[in-house]
Amino acid sequence: MMNGVYVLQSIKNKRYYIGSTDNIERRMKQHNSGYVSSTKNIMPLKLVLFQKCDTLADARKLERKIKNFKRRDFIEKMIKDGRIIVGP
After folding, report:
1. Environment class of 5 (CB within 10 Å of its CB; exposed 0-12, middle 13-18, buried 19+)
2. How high is the pLDDT of residue 85?
3. Using 50, 70 and 90 to split pLDDT, how confident is the model at 84?
4. 26-79 tens-digit pLDDT
5. Are 7 and 78 spatial neighbours (Cβ–Cβ below 8 Å)?
6. By Cβ atoms counted within 10 A, which residue in 6, 16, 50, 88 is the most buried?
7. What's the CA gap between 18 and 33, in Å, rounded?
C-alpha cells in the first residue's frame, strides 16, 4: 500500500481535484470510470501530483489542509514545485 495525497486535473476543463488514498492506481481507475460522483462530470482526469504520506490518516489531514486553501494559484505552485507544502 502507498498512502498519499493526490491532485488530479480535468483534461476537459482544467479544474483540479484533491484527494487521498492508500492505492493511487485503484483510485485513478475509479475516478476515470465515473465511479466517483464528485469527478464524473469533469472526466477524463490526469494525475498531476502525488505525495506519499506515512499513514492514510496523515494523508487525510494533509488533504483537508490543502482543500482549506481553496486557491488555484496555491495548487498550481505545488504542482510546479512537485511537492505539497503546507504550514503547521
Report:
1. buried
2. 76
3. confident
4. 999 999 999 999 999 999 999 999 999 999 999 999 999 999 887 899 999 999
5. yes
6. 6
7. 17
Residue showing cell 476515470 = 32
Surface-to-core class of residue 63, CB atoms within 10 Å of its CB (0-12 exposed, 13-18 middle, 19+ buried): buried
- 23's grid cell: 492505492
Cα distances from 53 to residues 14, 41, 57, 71, 75, in angstroms, run 26, 28, 9, 22, 18
Closest to 12 (Cα-Cα) out of 22, 34, 2, 3: 34
